[in-house]
Amino acid sequence: MVSLFYFQLLSAGLFAIGLYGVLARRSAVLIVMSIELMLNAVNINLIAAASHLEGRGSFVRFDGQIIAIFIITIAAAEVGLALAIILRMYRNRSTVNVDEIDIMKW
Amino acid sequence: MSWFLFILLAVLTLGGGLGVVLTRNVVHAALALLLSLIAVAGVYLVLFAEFLALVQVLIYGGAVIIVLLFAIMLTRGSEYPRISDNRQWPLAALAAMGVLGVLIPSFLINSVDNTKAQSPAFTDLANSLFTRWAIPFEIASLVLLVALIGAIIIARTGRDEG
Asked: CA A12: distance to chain centroid?
């Protein structure tokens, strides 16, 4: 059996990749994609902990899986709103490049 | 067998993720994201979380990728092949490595030995979701409603817009 640590390793790697994408990309669409990667990394971690540590301490009744369901729900809502904001941004400024959206930058 | 599957799925997940953050073509990035998310569904299957795997394929593989492709299409995807990263990418790589360098030792220090993946029954999950987590469940449905209405209002092209 694959032990918990390797799932955590996979989750940490995916989270780091997503963080790099959020910080280094310029297109707002790509930043949203990188945020999805980070959310999935967190989900892997939660579900691995839920199924490996069931019954130990406060890990009861697979709560990790329930929390992962909520995270997926919020991620879906977030993508819908992000699409709306990106479309409005594109219509007003005809760019989705976050470096050029600097009207609120001091 | 489960080791083989896990390594295959981990390579696909991380490779897809690297494809998302490194490719120069935004449509390729969306397809790499799809690969990564489907591989994550496979990881859930290795962890015996069948319901989550199904939800992952349906919501991420179906809805989220389609919405992102719509976003690419509606913001003139033909301009995208010459996208570039911003100038702070070495700093971003450093930050990502720093997070990895904090996470992995903390997982190593707090490691738990001799664990086996267990599978919940569907009825247990449903009972938990609709009894102990009933109020967060209702709030999540409200959040979805508000997000949808907000998205419609933000993206709408009305004559009466401010």
From this structure: 12
ipTM, two decimals, is 0.92
Query: Which residues of chain A neighbour B144 with C-beta distances below 8 Å?
Result: 73, 76-77
Per-residue model confidence (pLDDT) at position A47: 94
Average pLDDT over residues B58-66: 92
Phi-psi region of B156 (alpha: psi -120 to 50; beta: other; left: phi over 0): beta
Q: Quick check: B49 and A65 CB within 8 A?
A: yes
B134 to chain A, minimum CA–CA distance in Å?
Answer: 11
Q: Is A62 on the interface with B (CB under 8 A)?
A: yes
Domain of A67?
Answer: 4-93
CATH number where A16 lies: 1.10.287.3510
The answer to whether B21 contacts A34, with C-beta atoms less than 8 Å apart, is yes
pLDDT of residue B85 exceeding 70, the answer is no
Provide the whole-model pTM: 0.92
Which residue in the block uniquely carries the two structure tokens 């130990």? A56
* Whether residues B16 and B77 fall in one domain: yes
Overall number of domains in chain A: 1
